[in-house]
Amino acid sequence: MKKEQPIGVFDSGLGGISVLRELVSLLPAEDFIYFGDSANAPYGERTEREIRALTTAQVDRLAAAGVKAVVLACNTATSAACAPLRRRYRQLPIIGMEPALKPAILSREKPRVVVMATHATLRQKKFERLMARFKDAGEIVKLPCPEIVEFVERGEIHSEALSRYLKERFSIVLQTPVDCVVLGCTHFPFVRETIQQTVGPTVQIFDGAAGTARELKRRLEAIDALRGGARKGAIEWLSSSRDPGCIERAKMLFAL
Ligand code: DGL
User: Fold this and answer.
1) Is 74 a catalytic residue?
2) Residues 108-112: contacts with CB within 8 Å, 24+ apart?
3) Is 82 a catalytic residue?
């Protein structure tokens, strides 16, 4: 791998931009290619097979563009496709994501933790295994919230409709006090404020973006492929969507 090659960042749509922000902040000298498959989002309502096929096709494109690493900035794509992609590209570091359950559950004594994610992430064996590891350390509640993906894809990150949706989703869960919320989908950090308003100020919210950025840095360091120096890297924005507003929304979310 050459240090000058860009890093590919993939998501089903615009959610991965919440991860890209952390990547750029930790590795400002790197160039990035962001690809959002917004034409096919949401992935979370698709079958494992479809998610794997779509993710593989897009990672193939990034690999053909000459990236030195790929970040699957999508929990859903990671659960369905990360392992087969690592077998397909043995020389290419592929960094995946999983809901940040570990830091949440270890943050206090026996917490009650709500994991918000897509249906596909929550029903995967990968998540079952993660839950099984921490089942004795606290109470883990799964909360699928697929519609948030569509709110974010529309660029609707503050609205009455969003607040109503979140109130409705949390109504039963909040009947028992909640200690932590895990944002197990990369679209969700964009609506963090409304989630915090819904659950109340004492609930601590976790997401996996900063941890993913640190992992990418470690992996690039290990193969001596980190780009240093004082230069400011560039971002190339790509989307499968034909909507000309999509890249504009991407840049708006990046700038938040
Ligand atoms: N952003 C994706 C994730 O982290 C999923 C969004 C979708 O359903 O397409 O899970």
Assistant:
1) yes
2) 108/179, 108/180, 110/137, 110/138, 110/139, 111/138, 111/139, 111/179, 111/180, 112/138, 112/139, 112/141, 112/176, 112/177, 112/178, 112/179, 112/180
3) no
pLDDT in tens, 56-70: 999 999 999 999 999
In whole angstroms, what is the distance from residue 168 CA to residue 164 CA? 6
Please indicate whether residue 96, judged by its CB atom, sits closer than 6 Å to ligand 1: no
* Residue 238, both tokens: 């790509």
Is 42's C-beta closer than 6 angstroms to any atom of ligand 1?
yes
From CA 121, how far away is CA 51, in angstroms rounded?
11
b/e per residue, 223-256, with b = 16+ CB within 10 A?
eebbbeeeeeeebebbbbbeeeebbebbeebbee
Distance 76 CA to ligand 1 centre (A): 5
Please tell me whether the overall predicted TM-score, pTM, comes out greater than 0.70 for this model.
yes
What pLDDT digit, counting tens, does each position of 84-106 carry? Answer: 999 999 999 999 999 999 999 99
Ligand 1 pocket mutation pick from 10, 34, 74 by most atoms within 8 angstroms of CB:
74
